[in-house]
Structure formats: structure tokens, C-alpha cells
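Reviewer 2 asked us to include a model.

Predict the structure of this chain.
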Amino acid sequence: MTKLLTNFYEFECKLFRRVNQHFDRKFLNFYFRNITHIGGATATISAILFLIFLTNNSIQLTAIAAAVSLLISHIPVAIVKKLYPRKRPYIMLSETKVPQNPLKDHSFPSGHTTAIFAIIIPFIILMPALAVILLPIGASVGISRMYLGLHYPSDVLAGCFLGTSSGTIAMLSVGNYFPNAFLF
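Predicted model (C-alpha cells):
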């Protein structure tokens, strides 16, 4: 089992380095340093509150599902970060490129990735055509976390899983309480 975990960690470090090695490219820096904030608390909460208060019908109910998803997704994030205090890659891996004043808390799972998937999945369930726009945004937030030296690939995948799961559960729950709300 130890050999398997060691091999996985080595693979993960290689993948992390392949993303992080491009840190000094001007366009990528601009893109990833900005898109990463879309998964932050300020952006996700603001977007959801905006949609809850300024829309109606199925969009408003979907925004409520996204808010519930965001809330429930961060319970396991907080618990897992305490139970498995994984140090961030910029601390553990030499030559990792990282912006000034990086996060100091634990790495696993990625809260930004969890948050973005927690709020986009209900909208993708409501309108599957939005996946063409929303999934690349979610993936970009996840990649940005590695690009910026803050998360390993497994941190991002775990965040994606948690956000997707909570988004699906929240949307199904809202659909159960308002069965006719999502009929067009």
C-alpha cells in the first residue's frame, strides 16, 4: 500500500509541476490570477445573492439550490482540512512558483474548486447547454489553484467531487420540494 501511495504522490507532483512551471507567462498569469477569484467566497456568495434577489421562478430556485450547495459543500471541506492537515505544495516542493502572500492553511481539499462546482452544477442541471460555458470556468478555477502553487491535483479533484456532489444533491432536494418549478 505504501508503494502505491508513493507512486501516486510522485505522479501527482509531476502533474503539479507541469502546470506550475508556466507561472511566469504573462497571459497565463493574468488569466489564472484573475479567474481563481471566481471560486473565492466573495465572488461565489455575491453571485448567488445577486441571482436570488434579482431573478425569479426557476432561476431563483436554482440560485437557492446553489446557495444550499455552497453551504453544505464547505462542511466536509472544513472537517477534512482539520483531519488531514496536508501542507500546500509550495511548502513541500522545492522550486514551486507562488504569488506573494500565499494561503497558509491546509491544502486538501481545494475550497475554491469546491465552491465553483457547488454553484455551477445546479445551473448545469437546470440548463445543460450552460455546461459549455460553466464547466470551462470551473476547470479553469481548479487549474488556477495548481498554477498558483496552492494545491495538488488531488486537492482540486476532491474539491470538484465535493462541489459536484453537493450541487447535485441540493438541486434534487429543491426539485423535490418544488416539483413543478423546473418545467418549461
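The CA atoms of residues 137 and 176 lie 28 Å apart. The two ends are 51 Å apart (CA to CA). We have added this to the supplementary material.
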